[in-house]
Amino acid sequence: MSRFWSPVVHNLEPYVPGEQPKIADLIKLNTNENPYGPSPKVLETLKQSINDNLRLYPDPDSGKLKQTLADYYHVETKQVFAGNGSDEVLAHIFNALFQHEAPLLFPDITYSFYPVYCQLYQINYQTVSLTEQFEIDINDYQQKNGGIIFPNPNAPTSRLLALGEIERLLQNNTESVVVIDEAYIDFGGETAISLVDKYPNLLVTQTLSKSRSLANLRIGFAIGHRDLIEALVRVKDSFNSYPMSNLAVNAGIEAFNDQEYFELTNNKIMTSRQQLVQELEKFGFDVLPSSANFVFVTHPQFDAEELSAGLRQQGIIVRHFKHKRINQFLRITIGTAEQNQRLIQVLKTLV
Q1: Which of 76, 176, 210, 214 has fewest C-beta within 10 Å?
Q2: Are 31 and 17 in contact (CB under 8 A)?
Q3: pTM given for the model
Q4: Does residue 288 come out as left (phi exceeding 0), alpha (psi in the -120 to 50 range) or beta?
Q5: pLDDT one-digit tens code per residue, 86-96
Q6: Please, which residues have CB within 8 angstroms of residue 88's CB and are 6 or more apart in sequence?
Q7: What domains are defined for the chain?
Q8: What is the pLDDT of residues 276-305, one digit of tens each?
Q9: Quick count: other Cβ atoms within 10 Å of Cβ 306?
């Protein structure tokens, strides 16, 4: 530690991202990246965007992308906020909307960036335990709070909360902001964006990193009431007024324009997920119901950390978490059919 640090830095425990290995020929099933590349139309627009205009600053408002998102989700452009990946969007949300006396509420097992943001912005928070089946129970959130946030589907558990339950939460929680983090919604869920015009305290975030295969370009967005969006814009413009490059904006637009490719690759992932679950259950794995591009699994007879190490020795990386409630689970990203088959072949030798 340095005596030159600001006081808040001493207590920070930074988020630990999934490993990005430097070893060649590994089957990488640990960070929920899409196994299929971006739309060919996205690649073509990126080529066309690499020109002399790179010397210029981008549009600080990312207006063309916001218009595309507004048209796609049938909202007004003033209801859309865009940023460098959903992580940056979430950071602005925590800073702009969650700094209150009452605690922010989120699940005890969830996206591990949430408590990091709370440390960074010195936000009072309280975790709410998932049920024994690792589900979110809306009744547990009916208490005084300074905001509520959770992913849907939840990560790393992969379980989906029905849209009707989210609306029930909104009906009973009208005095604080509710943020639904929909990084994985396109793999089997129904977005809560349809509710934003009805509930002014609802904010929905999404990313183009997963279902639209653009993790490297860092594109995220939020949709909600214009008052919530204005708060995010104020924070953004006090932090970085030019957050998104023209490359990212143009790629994002084309990713939403190519609906056929989006549906094709998502259907492949969901079909592969179903097949993988069936294979894992044959070997005695318990698999939580998944609406994401990953599965969360445990085996009653084998230690999860040892299984992870065994897979790694055979060139396959999955994610193991240390949290006491889930330290016997592995999170496995859905890969291509060939990658999934290799996973099953190795697991046969391990279990």
Answers
A1: 76
A2: yes
A3: 0.95
A4: beta
A5: 999 999 999 99
A6: 218, 220, 243
A7: 18-37+260-350 (3.90.1150.10), 40-257 (3.40.640.10)
A8: 999 999 999 999 999 999 999 999 999 999
A9: 11
